[in-house]
């Protein structure tokens, strides 16, 4: 496993037919059609590869059932396991679309609306499917061959693949979906060209076709060549290969939140000394911590850029660093508006002493136990809820929360609160009717609460949470951080 301790993200996607409609697995009767105009839960498919033959794939629906074809080409999605009728081969086309061929009967899958079959002997336009990733589009990119992470190198004006741990905002990459292809966007808003240069505008040389091989991703450019890390710093650009080998394969990994913490004395919590202390006035890698939230307990472990974890000395509650996750101290984060308090695994709150030392010795929360937590690696914010992405409404200033496409918003920190801004420079606010609008002239303060692994809640100045209602509109009236008020980020 790579040094960041993450597993690769599951490759989930939508399949778009020649009419621009998505392959859909209906809840009733396990039927399939290609009628949906957008990518939502019913249109999500997970790719699983055969353990014996890497060329063979299975397509699992959101219901956990598998796409299958019988000898007459009749398609169903009822199988609950990997049987012979569920075995497909991906025949990738030069434009990036897939033809799906039944391995058992050697016929191709295609059609439109309710008329889908797997009986075509040759590939026509009706048997071709475009692939639309259903992952959250912001992730860390890991080179399979080098076992190193990609990041923006500002000095060299390139994406370099040489990080042991994906650290800071520079390691966050955004996959932008445009007309069936993907662009790689850096944290400063530039796009990767196939020659390794970073461009301010997307275009032909920044568009890549995604290919899947052995559960990994390859990026094919407009000339049929593949991105790979080159040279000692791993400059990411297209090489000479027209077939992807190990050097051209990548994993996408979930990007953990990275934060800095400001104590009651106004100083940053730092690891420049042996133990943790709030004694620094500037914000560098030694003041930055990765916040890894356990899926089950919802407790957080804090990790430094050197890979060390916060830990406790049993006697006296001194906060130190441990090389091992086993000896780390899972911490409960109590969200208090624009401040947080941290409760260590000894049941005590962490407080800041006059000399800046951090000790887990307090039974209650006072001024010395309050910290300001600042999220630093999401300057570009993309939010996805249980029904889809947040996107500005086509005809008004309100925001939709159920779209298959997304808008990229800017996140600005201000004294423990955050301002959220659109591409037009206008700010989010909650109006008198409880609707979240995106045309504010002045910024409005929101609180972010990192409550679950990969998910946050947003709290308005009224104390209510932002949630997606049943009609797909974003509202600022949620009484608590329910499932409709949790957002992948």
TrEMBL record:
Any one biological process term the GO annotation gives: cell migration
GO CC entries? actin cytoskeleton; cytoplasm
- Residue stretches spanning the membrane: none
Which family, according to the similarity comment?
A: Belongs to the fascin family.
Compartments, as annotated in UniProt: Cytoplasm, Cytoskeleton
Q: Which residues form the Fascin-like domain?
A: 21-131, 140-252, 268-372, 387-489
Listed InterPro entries: Actin-crosslinking, Fascin, Fascin-like_dom, Fascin_metazoans
SUPFAM superfamilies associated with the record: Actin-crosslinking proteins
Composition skew (Gly residues), residue ranges = 469-479
Q: Which protein is depicted?
A: Fascin
- Which terms does the record give in the GO molecular function aspect? actin filament binding; protein-macromolecule adaptor activity
Principal cellular location given in the protein's record: cytoplasm
Which region ranges are annotated with the description Disordered? 469-489
Species per Swiss-Prot/TrEMBL record: Salarias fasciatus (Jewelled blenny)
* Superkingdom: Eukaryota
- A Pfam match is Fascin
